Protein backbone atom coordinates (compact mmCIF):
# COMPACT_ATOMS: atom_id res chain seq x y z
CA UNK A 1 0.00 0.00 0.00
CA UNK A 2 2.79 2.41 0.92
CA UNK A 3 4.45 1.91 -2.47
CA UNK A 4 1.21 2.87 -4.23
CA UNK A 5 0.91 6.07 -2.18
CA UNK A 6 4.51 6.92 -3.05
CA UNK A 7 3.89 6.14 -6.73
CA UNK A 8 0.84 8.39 -6.67
CA UNK A 9 2.92 11.23 -5.26
CA UNK A 10 5.67 10.65 -7.79
CA UNK A 11 3.16 10.66 -10.63
CA UNK A 12 1.72 13.96 -9.42
CA UNK A 13 5.20 15.46 -9.13
CA UNK A 14 6.26 14.26 -12.59
CA UNK A 15 3.12 15.68 -14.19
CA UNK A 16 3.50 18.97 -12.29
CA UNK A 17 7.16 19.34 -13.21
CA UNK A 18 6.38 18.37 -16.80
CA UNK A 19 4.14 21.43 -16.97
CA UNK A 20 6.80 23.60 -15.38
CA UNK A 21 4.61 24.38 -12.37
CA UNK A 22 5.61 24.95 -8.79
CA UNK A 23 3.78 23.19 -5.98
CA UNK A 24 2.13 26.55 -5.28
CA UNK A 25 0.76 26.73 -8.82
CA UNK A 26 -0.62 23.20 -8.62
CA UNK A 27 -2.14 23.94 -5.23
CA UNK A 28 -3.90 27.00 -6.62
CA UNK A 29 -5.19 25.14 -9.66
CA UNK A 30 -6.45 22.23 -7.55
CA UNK A 31 -7.81 24.33 -4.67
CA UNK A 32 -5.49 22.62 -2.16
CA UNK A 33 -2.96 23.84 0.36
CA UNK A 34 0.62 23.98 -0.97
CA UNK A 35 2.03 22.10 2.00
CA UNK A 36 -0.55 19.36 1.47
CA UNK A 37 0.47 19.05 -2.20
CA UNK A 38 4.04 18.58 -0.97
CA UNK A 39 2.93 15.86 1.42
CA UNK A 40 1.08 14.11 -1.40
CA UNK A 41 4.16 14.28 -3.63
CA UNK A 42 6.36 12.84 -0.88
CA UNK A 43 3.89 10.01 -0.29
CA UNK A 44 3.47 10.96 3.35
CA UNK A 45 -0.34 11.28 3.17
CA UNK A 46 -3.06 9.21 1.53
CA UNK A 47 -5.20 11.61 -0.50
CA UNK A 48 -8.94 11.08 -0.69
CA UNK A 49 -10.60 10.20 -3.97
CA UNK A 50 -11.89 13.77 -4.17
CA UNK A 51 -8.38 15.16 -3.69
CA UNK A 52 -6.97 12.77 -6.30
CA UNK A 53 -9.62 13.95 -8.74
CA UNK A 54 -8.84 17.62 -7.99
CA UNK A 55 -5.17 16.99 -8.69
CA UNK A 56 -5.87 15.02 -11.86
CA UNK A 57 -8.17 17.70 -13.28
CA UNK A 58 -5.71 20.46 -12.39
CA UNK A 59 -2.97 18.50 -14.18
CA UNK A 60 -5.16 18.01 -17.26
CA UNK A 61 -5.61 14.26 -16.95
CA UNK A 62 -8.55 12.20 -15.81
CA UNK A 63 -8.47 10.21 -12.60
CA UNK A 64 -7.98 6.95 -14.46
CA UNK A 65 -5.02 8.41 -16.33
CA UNK A 66 -3.36 9.47 -13.10
CA UNK A 67 -3.86 6.02 -11.58
CA UNK A 68 -2.56 4.40 -14.79
CA UNK A 69 0.61 6.45 -14.41
CA UNK A 70 1.00 5.02 -10.89
CA UNK A 71 0.72 1.52 -12.34
CA UNK A 72 3.40 2.34 -14.94
CA UNK A 73 5.74 3.48 -12.17
CA UNK A 74 5.15 0.23 -10.27
CA UNK A 75 5.83 -1.83 -13.39
CA UNK A 76 9.05 0.10 -14.00
CA UNK A 77 10.16 -0.54 -10.43
CA UNK A 78 9.34 -4.26 -10.74
CA UNK A 79 11.30 -4.50 -14.00
CA UNK A 80 14.26 -2.79 -12.35
CA UNK A 81 14.15 -5.24 -9.43
CA UNK A 82 14.20 -8.13 -11.91
CA UNK A 83 17.18 -6.62 -13.77
CA UNK A 84 19.07 -6.10 -10.52
CA UNK A 85 18.30 -9.64 -9.36
CA UNK A 86 19.57 -11.07 -12.65
CA UNK A 87 22.81 -9.09 -12.31
CA UNK A 88 23.30 -10.36 -8.75
CA UNK A 89 23.05 -14.00 -9.87
Topology:
Layout lengths: L1 H17 L4 H8 L3 H9 L6 H11 L3 H26 L1
Question: Any overview of this molecule?
Answer:
The chain has one domain (2-88): lambda repressor-like DNA-binding domains (434 Repressor (Amino-terminal Domain), Orthogonal Bundle), CATH 1.10.260.40. It has five helices and no strands. The protein has helices at 2-18, 23-30, 34-42, 49-59, 63-88. Helix 1 (2-18) crosses helix 3, helix 1 (2-18) crosses helix 5 (63-88) and helix 2 packs across helix 4 (49-59). The N and C termini lie far apart (29 Å).
Short description:
The radius of gyration is 14 Å and the shape is elongated. It has 89 residues and is mainly α.
Poorly predicted runs of 5 or more residues: none
What's the tally of helices? 5
**What is CATH's topology name?**
434 Repressor (Amino-terminal Domain)
How far apart are the first and last residues' alpha carbons, in Å? 29 Å
Mean pLDDT: 93
Strand content: under 5%
Pattern of helices and strands:
HHHHH
**Main pleated sheet:** none
Task: Sum up the structure in keywords.
89 residues; mainly alpha; 434 Repressor (Amino-terminal Domain); 5 helices; elongated
Amino acid sequence: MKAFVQDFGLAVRQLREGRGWSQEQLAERSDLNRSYVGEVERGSVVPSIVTAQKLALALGVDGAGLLARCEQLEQSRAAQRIRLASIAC
